[in-house]
Amino acid sequence: MFHDSEILLYTILYLLICGCIVYPPVEFTSSGLTISAIFSSFLKSENEHFVLYHIKQSVITLFIYSLLPLGYVTGLWFFNYSEEIISLWTFDKSLLWQLFTNSCFIFPLLALYQIKTWSDDNWKNHPIAVNLSRFCNNNGTWLSVASDINVEFRRVDKISIQTNAVSRVIATENWILKVTPLTIFVAHQSDATLNACHTDTHTMSAENFGHVQYVTIEVKSARDNVPPFKIRVNTADFRDLQDRLARPITITPDILVHKSLMDKFVDTFREVVQDNPVYSTEEELDNCIGCMQKTANVKLQKVCTDNTGDNACVTCYCRPMWCMECMAKWFASRQDNERPDTWLSSKCTCPMCRATFCVLDVCMVES
């Protein structure tokens, strides 16, 4: 038989477990203790069928959420507390307890009914299908919109940002998607407006360089029946999202978006490279293989006078394949995160041939 203190301890532990299921911490995610990881064999590949994957995931998530109250009562029974559980239905207990214990069985039934409603007519009534159907043209169905999104999600030029433990923002060539456990908010870039409506800054440890800022962006569609939604991203991801979007993000004068450490380094890197010698070529330049957005515009060629030592700069024979921003980000990614003051004076290796170079060896391409 449990004592009151044991019941309280069990309740606290169960609430913590529920919190980890609903909003999994990093430790649970890295250990594969999430709904998507546990049911991966049923969900299959997100990359192959993105929309169907999230429809199935939402169904599993809804049903598991509905089982959480029943799991609490089952746990009490498992720990030999059956007499007290039976007494929960008697009239000498509070109405709150009676409502809770009856809800333990009602919630799963309601969830199953909701899932049945969603699945009718090939998932036509599912929230994801409803959101996609708002973009149908020429009497098409939501399946045609889903097919377009599936195709664009498979491409390597998309950007996916994990905004928190249960939410993601995905930007493809034509779509802006906010993925949540139970639905996907959708906007087409051709008729969407994006406004940075709020920022919040949080003080962090010295290892995180003082602070971190988040930007809340409101996404509105010009279509009357498409509800607006908000996304919240770190300023470190803000620039990457901005580069992927075909529509500009409007920043009102009262909103101050701080530059991330990476943005500051890219600006400084660009200033130094612009003073370096220019590399002339007549060959046709392809898109940067890093971002696939801009034309490759830098070439690594030995210009500095560093000729001694095991880590001396050497000649790189690779053709121009990177843009300035991607080369700067690659350079910074190979440096010591705890010593940003040494980044500019440090060295790096070519992403392709691993030839050692410094900032003085990065030259703008002139064609």
Instruction: Give the end-to-end Cα distance, rounded to a whole number of Å.
Output: 83 Å
Ranges where pLDDT stays below 50 over 5 or more residues in a row are: none
Classify the helix fraction into a percent range. Answer: 40-55%
What structural class do the secondary elements suggest?
Answer: alpha+beta
> How would a crystallographer describe the biggest sheet?
4 strands, antiparallel
Mean residue pLDDT: 87
Q: In terms of quaternary structure, what is this?
A: single chain
H-E string: HHHHHHHHHEEEEEEEHEHEEHEEE
Question: What is the number of helical segments per DSSP (H or I, 4+ residues)?
Answer: 12
- Please list the strands of the largest sheet in the order they lie side by side: 1-2-3-4
β-strand number: 13
How large, in whole angstroms, is the Cα Rg?
27 Å
Number of domains: 3
SS strand fraction:
15-25%
Principal-axis shape? globular
